[in-house]
């Protein structure tokens, strides 16, 4: 009986905090639901060109303003957790996507950046084998990329 009472009080406290956050304007449910929309077609692509097209672009060009940070390894000892860090010095950067050419689905991550946000992302991806990875940046409606080969010594996905 005592355990159920504690669970009810704990749940009620959490609901109260959420309600206060919504009431104060700190949490807006419509924004949370808007974030749920995602580009399923882009995450099902099998090549760099198809991914750029699915994201709404065409003819991405290599640009030195898109860079992999030094924390992105040349050799990954474990393909299950490969750290990738990308920065962009291109003005009006809107999004940064990470693509792994030889993965079953090329697009590994896509980050939309609100205006005024520092164009920097860091994440970990799975890689099944040695592959070129791409950092794809959308800036001012155009697409730019950087490419780097990462050698995988122990497979992480698909093999």
Structure, described:
This protein has 159 residues and is α+β, with helices and mostly antiparallel strands. It has two domains: 2-33, no CATH class; 39-152, SoxY domain (Immunoglobulin-like). Helices cover 25% and strands 34% of the residues. It has helices at residues 2-23, 29-34, 40-43, 48-54, and strands at residues 61-62, 66-68, 75-76, 82-88, 93-100, 107-112, 120-125, 131-139, 142-152. The strands form two sheets. Strands 1, 3, 5, 6, 8 and 9 form a six-stranded mixed β-sheet that branches. Strand 5 (93-100) and strand 6 form a beta hairpin. The chain is globular and about 60 Å long. 25% of the residues are buried.
Helices and strands in order:
Elements (H helix, E strand, L loop, with lengths): L1 H22 L5 H6 L5 H4 L4 H7 L6 E2 L3 E3 L6 E2 L5 E7 L4 E8 L6 E6 L7 E6 L5 E9 L2 E11 L7
Distinctive features:
about 160 residues; alpha+beta; Immunoglobulin-like; 6-stranded mixed beta sheet; 4 helices; 9 strands; about 25% helix; about 35% strand
What is the name of the CATH superfamily of the largest domain?
SoxY domain
What is the CATH C level class of the largest domain, in words? Answer: Mainly Beta
* Beta-strand percentage range: 25-35%
Oligomer: single chain
């Amino acid at each position: 009986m005592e355990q159920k009472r504690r669970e009810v009080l704990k749940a009620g406290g959490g609901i109260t905090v959420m309600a206060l956050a919504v009431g104060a304007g700190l949490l807006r449910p419509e924004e949370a639901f808007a974030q749920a929309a995602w580009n399923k077609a882009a995450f099902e692509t099998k090549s760099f060109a198809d991914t750029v097209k699915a994201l709404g672009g065409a003819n991405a060009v290599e640009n030195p303003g898109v860079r992999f940070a030094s924390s992105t390894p040349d050799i990954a000892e474990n393909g299950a957790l490969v750290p990738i860090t990308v920065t962009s010095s291109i003005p009006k950067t809107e999004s940064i996507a990470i693509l792994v050419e030889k993965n079953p689905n090329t697009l590994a991550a896509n980050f939309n950046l609100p205006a005024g946000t520092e164009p920097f992302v860091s994440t970990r991806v799975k890689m099944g084998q040695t592959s070129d990875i791409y950092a794809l940046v959308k800036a001012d409606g155009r697409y730019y990329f950087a490419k780097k080969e990462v050698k995988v010594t122990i497979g992480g996905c698909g093999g």
